[in-house]
Automatic annotation (TrEMBL):
<dbReference type="Pfam" id="PF02985">
    <property type="entry name" value="HEAT"/>
</dbReference>
<dbReference type="Pfam" id="PF25780">
    <property type="entry name" value="TPR_IPO5"/>
</dbReference>
<dbReference type="GO" id="GO:0006606">
    <property type="term" value="P:protein import into nucleus"/>
</dbReference>
<dbReference type="InterPro" id="IPR011989">
    <property type="entry name" value="ARM-like"/>
</dbReference>
<keyword id="KW-0539">Nucleus</keyword>
<dbReference type="Pfam" id="PF25574">
    <property type="entry name" value="TPR_IMB1"/>
</dbReference>
<dbReference type="GO" id="GO:0005737">
    <property type="term" value="C:cytoplasm"/>
</dbReference>
<dbReference type="GO" id="GO:0005634">
    <property type="term" value="C:nucleus"/>
</dbReference>
<dbReference type="InterPro" id="IPR001494">
    <property type="entry name" value="Importin-beta_N"/>
</dbReference>
<keyword id="KW-0813">Transport</keyword>
<feature type="domain" description="Importin N-terminal">
    <location>
        <begin position="27"/>
        <end position="112"/>
    </location>
</feature>
<dbReference type="InterPro" id="IPR040122">
    <property type="entry name" value="Importin_beta"/>
</dbReference>
<dbReference type="InterPro" id="IPR000357">
    <property type="entry name" value="HEAT"/>
</dbReference>
<dbReference type="InterPro" id="IPR016024">
    <property type="entry name" value="ARM-type_fold"/>
</dbReference>
<keyword id="KW-0653">Protein transport</keyword>
<dbReference type="Pfam" id="PF18808">
    <property type="entry name" value="Importin_rep_4"/>
</dbReference>
<keyword id="KW-0677">Repeat</keyword>
Amino acid sequence: MNQQELDYIGQTLLEILNNDNNIRKQGEAKLLAIKSSEPEKYACYLVAILGHQSYGIEVKSLAAVILRRNISQTAADSQDIGNQENNANLWSRITPDGKNFIRGELLKVISQTQDKHVVSKICNLLVEVGGSIYEQEQFVWQDLLNLLFQFVNSEEDLKVDAALQIFNGLFSYLMDYLVQFKSDLVGIFKKTLNHKSLDINLSALQAVSNFLQIAEGKDAREFTSLLGDMAQVALKALAADDETVLEDALVEFNEMAEIEPKFFRKNFKDLFIAFSAIVAKDDYTNPLIRHQPVEFFVTVVERVPTVVKKDQDTLKALLDLVFKLMIDIDADIDESWMRPKEGFKADEEEEDEDSVHFGKTCVDRLVSSIGEEIMLPLLSTLVQATLSNNEDWRYKNAGLMALSQVGEYLDDISKISPMIPTVITHLQHPVAKIRYAALHCIGQMADDMTEDFQEAFHESILPAVTHMLADPVPRVQAHACAALTNFFEGTSEEIVVNYIEAIMPKLCELIQVGISIIKENAVTALASLAEAAKEKFSAYYDQCIAFLIQFMGAFNEPVYKQFKGQVIEAATIMSASVGLDKFRPHAATVISAMLEIQNKQLDNKDAQRTYLLSAWQRIAIIMGQEFGPYLPSVIPSLFQMATLNPAMSVQGSEHTGDIIDVLSEIKPVEDDKKNLNVNTDEIEEKDVAIQMLAVFIDELGPVFAPYAEHASKILLHMIDYEANDSIRNSVASSLPGLIKCIKNADPTNQAIILHYSRLFLENLVKAINTETETDTLISQVQAAKDIIDEVGEGILEQGTVEALTQLLLSQYSKSDDRIKENNELAKGADGAEDEDDVVDQDEMEVIKEENNNEYDLQLSIAEIIGILFKTHGPLCGGLITRLFNETLPHAFGLNEKQKTKFGLFILDDMVEFLGPNLLGAQYFQVAQQIIKHCNSTVAAVRQAASYGIGIMAEKSGAAFQTIANDALMGLKLAIEFQMPASVQEKKTKVKQFNHARDNAVSALGKIIKFQSGFVDAPALIVNWVGLLPIKNDVDEAKVQNEFLAQILTENPTLVLGEQYQRFEQIVLLLSEITNEKYVTQETGQKLATILKGIAGNATFSEQFWAIVNNKLVEKSKNNIMNAINSQ
């Protein structure tokens, strides 16, 4: 090895460490040049420096870090990101001889180095080399493993610690190899967990933790014998008052609980007893250490609830610990809490408040996982005990905060009623934090039991909370505003209108004179009040909007940016509540004020930006195409925000932070040096901007067309945006609206319509092929469907239809595979011999949710197939063949409700869009398959079958004659299907049952209307009328009510009877359906004409009014009178 060249590399590293940017850049350039021209020499010299006596700790550390980053496949050298060849993984560019030299030197260096800092960096390098060898060459570096076993048995703590660090890192690469030596690893960890050095104990615990988080559950069982030794690491640290090791040890237990909670199932109680001592100690330098054991307990319970369901004594003890944390806060209330500084944010909360918040969260998690049947009685006892304590206010505080969490889990408002007077009483407590907690309780319950809570308690709660707006403590005033916000968000228009006069002036005063936290909460409460009141707020709108516009132009200090953002939000929410006519006179002023803020007052990271984005959406929805003149001023900044690239950057450096990351590994930043400020663009802001773009596209229509090209470039650029699936969803959902916008702007320009629609479809297809998130796949498939439907015939050619067929059926198959995998996991767990292999309730819920998402995806695939039939039926021969030969037999053969529903969706679309002409001989087969499901025990299946019959009646013409009798028999079964007791117990199931029946009744009406020549129409009409009204499926109701109006107009005796014997029945029916919910405007006018004619007819008038006055409930009577009195 050439000493001169070695010195050159060493000097170059020193230059990189220099604080002078110019010198550092020169060093980086030199090193990159060597890596580019002589990668092997570059690597070998960096290794040689590690063992050379003449170089200091920082140079050696830098050499190890740089080499590790170059060898790593996950941390490519981004200092050379522009040169992909030079930036390729370094290990693959080194010859076998070079690799042998590096391996040998590294083993020698790690054995000889005595500096702990350098050893740590070399350990990381050894892990990377060992991992690269295994991943790239399928070769285990046995010499390294042998050395580690030697190190573990060494008398030198440094070597033992190094061995554990390397083992810990290798688990990520060699787990499938190392699990063969579980017994050896258990022995190593047993020894090191009991080592005399607490630091080595911690390293051993971290290694065991990493193993358990990476290994399969079955490979973790052997390690349960170590649990006692693992727990002792934390307990030894507790005894030694070593808070650093204690906290690090508890972090490991929490991470293990997140990934492998069942590992602790059998020993949970022992761990609970042992770790409770950590919570009991109350003199830590960092009091939040007490949270860590409780976090561990709650995490395990969340994932394995049976550990306490079968041991309620432990559950009670756990709740006692949670309450103890909530109570053990400072008894003195600081002035800074009562009157926070201007610009205060909730995340700046004190440690005490963190303990209360932490306790509330724990209560919520425990109720959610264990269930209200067990938890609520236990909580009730604790809450009552704490609320009755009049000696120490902290008990009441804990009780009220815990009580605030239970509303979400109560299904009956009466269960909380007895506690409401108690909560209201505490609004007058002399301790500010108690008043605050009572307000928090009210606000949380209003949010959790929305509408029912407001309707039941508004008369007692709203006056009491309104009174709290005058509380002498600003923090309490602010929370009173927050409680009002939550209350208003679930309050009906009829209720809230009674409180506007009393509350609005007080909120306006607080906005005017309060500190920033009061201003923020008061203006949001005012917006919620307006939103709840809707048009009834119109009388106050002019005054309020003028008031808020003043604030949009004032309070420009940074501490008021949040307030200004909420003012923007409030102004636009109010305007949306009262409508365009009220907003129009103020529109220009509001928009001008918003543009002033947007163009002149925004910082790089500004709270106002997201509020502005949402506000523009509201204004676009309010104004529609009237917003067009303002677009040139708004769109540029919108496009800019939508194209921001969230990326790491470091202030004060021209690099993107990577060299600073390297240097920070070498020497930690000292307290008196400049901190590294890492900035990230908010992905959420980007997502909001894209959603805003979608709103503009949908609401402005052709007015947005001049910006369509630019918008399409932005959207397509992010259609496969990896960093965030919400953005991918938003992009996909925006594309159909953009096509509609382009089409409406110039319907005659088919060339441009086809260009964009095909471009969007091409990109959607590519995105679908690589997408991994089911929710996003649904958005993408639905977007493709909507585009094809919007453009219609001609968008696709034969080859495109065939390619799309392959894509859709492939996605259906992949979705099926994911469902099978989930089902096998659940089924396999049912027969598991080992308790740890049992899938718990939470895991079953996850499996169920994942499968439901997959079924939704499959229904989306069925829907786009239907659109292909609708728009390109003659080109779908190949698709139809594959459906009949592969997909449909499989779907119906499984006899599963979701699969049957999927199959019926496709068959319904076949009869609607392909019909007898394209289906030919298969039409009868399709019809019989639909009809036979009319008697299914599954309501959704009966609904799909009945809908299909109605469609066949409407679309099939004379071909329907061959199936008419079968269809009627099927509908008879569907209509007469009795509701099982199990359905009656659940509202959602009752609703689905009624929808199925409605569709069957509607199908009967369609047979009468479209196929009267093949059935006994007069007899069927009597049955059909007797089954009306349709009340659940509103769309079908409107169709059938139009048909009824048509018969009553053209041939009334068909419905009324030759002797008008069904007159009363029809009047009663009309009184129920003459409502805008169940009729179109045109149908409503027809029915009104009919009713006016009956009311004024000398023959029927007396009988008609007798029915109206004596046999109708008030609501039905009003329906009749409104129709008769209509213009």
